[in-house]
Amino acid sequence: MEFYSPLQRIITSLVLPPKLFLIWLFGITPTHLLIYEVIFAAELIFHHSNWALPLLLDRALSYVIVTPNYHRAHHARLLSGMHSNYASLLTIWDILFCSVQYPAVPEAIKLGIPGVNQEFTLLRLLVLPF
Predict the structure, then answer these.
(1) Domain regions of the chain by residue span
(2) How many CB atoms sit inside 10 A of residue 122's CB?
(3) Per residue in 9-67, pLDDT tens?
(4) Is residue 108's pLDDT more than 80?
C-alpha cells in the first residue's frame, strides 16, 4: 500500500534529475512548478477520497479529471479493473490509450488485493506509513 502526502510529492518531484532537466529545458518557473504540484497533490487527495459525488456529476467530471468513482476501478480486486484508469490528473490519457473503464456500480467495487483482508482503524492508518 502506498501513502502519499503533499510534502512527499513535492520533495520527490524536485529531486528527480530527469524532471529537473525537463524543468530547466522548458524554462518552467518555480512559481508555475509550485502551482502545478499543489493542483496535482490536491487532485491525488481528491480521487483517492471517499467523496460520494452524485453519480451523474462524477461521471461528467470523469471525462476531464480523475474522480473518486473513476479511480476506484483501478483499485478493484478484479484483474480487469486493475488494468484500467491509470491517469493521475487528466483522463485524456486513459481515453487515448483505451484504458478507460468507468464502473457501472462504483459503490459495489471491492477494493484491495485479492486474498488480503485488513481492517483499518484510525490508529492503524496513522502508523501505516511507518
Answers:
(1) 1-47, 53-130
(2) 6
(3) 666 666 667 777 888 899 999 899 899 889 988 888 888 888 888 989 999 999 999 99
(4) no
The 3-state secondary structure of the chain reads CCCCCHHHHHHHHHHCHHHHHHHHHHCCCHHHHHHHHHHHHHHHHHHCCCCCCCHHHHHHHCCCECCHHHHHHHHECCHHHHCCCCCCCECHHHHHCCCCCCCCCHHHCCECCCCCCCCCCHHHHHHCCC
Answering whether pTM is above 0.70, one says no
The CA-atom distances, in angstroms, between 31 and each of 28, 60, 80 are: 8, 31, 40
| Euclidean distance between CA atoms 36 and 22, whole angstroms | 14
